Each structure stands twice: as C-alpha cells, then as structure tokens.
Amino acid sequence: MFVPLAGATMGPGCLKLAHSRSRVRQAPAIGIDGELPVEDEEAVFRHYKMSYASGAGGERRLACR
Q1: Distance of alpha carbon 44 from alpha carbon 3, whole angstroms
Q2: How far is CA 34 from CA 10, 29, 31, in A?
Q3: DSSP strand pairing (9-11 vs 14-16)
Q4: Rounded CA separation 34/57 (Å)
Q5: Partners of residue 15 on adjacent β-strands
Q6: How far apart are CA 51 and CA 5, in angstroms?
Q7: Using an 8 Å Cβ cutoff, are 3 and 19 in contact?
C-alpha cells in the first residue's frame, strides 16, 4: 500500500504516520512486486484527501513499490 510521508515523524525505532491505522489499511494496495496501474494512481491521492496532478509532461507521480 501507499502512504504519504508528509506529516510523518520519526522516533527511536519507529515512524509515526499522520494517518490513522484504519485509513492506511483501507488504502488502495498492490502486490509486493507489483506496479500501480496508471488509471488507479489518482485513487490513492483521493483516499488520503490529497490533490492529484500528473507531471508537466504527463509523467506519473507514483509507480513501483
């Protein structure tokens, strides 16, 4: 699954995310060696209530895990 690191904090031996455990568990996911299909990329951003825009040349914002 994809999780935004914006707002995350690091501590000794841990990373605390700015999103609840349930929100992260409900996020769109891919297989361990999978690739997120381009048509599903915007759904990840929507799930975390983030705005989505592809790069100036149409390039993707997310890709391989």
Answers
A1: 9
A2: 27, 9, 5
A3: antiparallel
A4: 24
A5: 10
A6: 15
A7: yes
Spell out the per-residue pLDDT of the chain, length 65, in tens. 788 888 999 999 999 999 999 999 998 877 777 777 778 888 888 999 988 887 777 677 665 44
Residue 44 neighbours by CB distance under 10 Å: 21
Query: Cβ atoms within 10 A of the Cβ of 36, count?
Result: 20
User: Which residue type occupies 33?
Assistant: D
For residue 61, the one-letter residue type is R
- Whether 21 and 15 have beta carbons less than 8 Å apart is answered as no
Q: Is 38 helix (H, G, I), strand (E, B) or coil?
A: helix
The upper half-sphere exposure of residue 45, i.e. CA atoms within 13 Å in the direction of its Cβ, equals 14
pTM of the model: 0.70
